[in-house]
Amino acid sequence: MNKLLIQKREEISETRVAKMVFPATTNHYETLFGGIALQWMDEVAYIAATRFSRKTMVTISTEQIDFKQPIPSGILIELIARVVHVGRTSLKVEVSIFLEQLDSDKRTKAITGHFNFVAVDENKKPTPIFDDENTQ
């Protein structure tokens, strides 16, 4: 695989999404419900994987998700997804969630995790990420 091509695709596929944590997404402790955090992380990881490969991608697994601190209601978060490993038919995306105080520049990493995807063809079978059409 062409290392310059991979580096270029990693750069253009980085995905950033900002969200507010509202009460409808929190648990009984008034912090972001873990299942919602995982859903948002999978969504942003999927976008990064698809932007990288320009193929149909499906989540095949997650790796350790580290919840470093609770995310309170009323805070702004930013999800950042980056492709960190590329195989023949699969790739790995690292997703981090950062907290941002609305009234200051303070920024803290709250959650990090890895999501694994595989490229699939029209028959839902694994297909190479790079082929003649997208290796230029």
Automatic annotation (TrEMBL):
Listed A to Z, the keywords are: Hydrolase
Claim: Hydrolase is one of the keywords in the record: yes
The record, for Gene3D superfamilies, names:
Hotdog Thioesterase
* Domain spans labelled HotDog ACOT-type: 11-123
Give yes or no: UniProt keyword Cell cycle.
no
Q: Which CDD domains match?
A: BFIT_BACH
For this protein, what is the EC number?
A: 3.1.2.20
Tell me which stretches of the chain form a coiled coil: none
Question: Which InterPro entries does the record cross-reference, listed alphabetically?
Answer: Cytosol_ACT, HOTDOG_ACOT, HotDog_dom_sf, Thioestr_dom
Q: What class of enzyme is it?
A: hydrolase
PROSITE patterns, per this entry?
HOTDOG_ACOT
GO function terms (MF aspect): fatty acyl-CoA hydrolase activity
**Family in the record:** Belongs to the acyl coenzyme A hydrolase family.
What name does UniProt use for this protein? Answer: Acyl-CoA thioesterase
Record the organism.
Marinomonas primoryensis
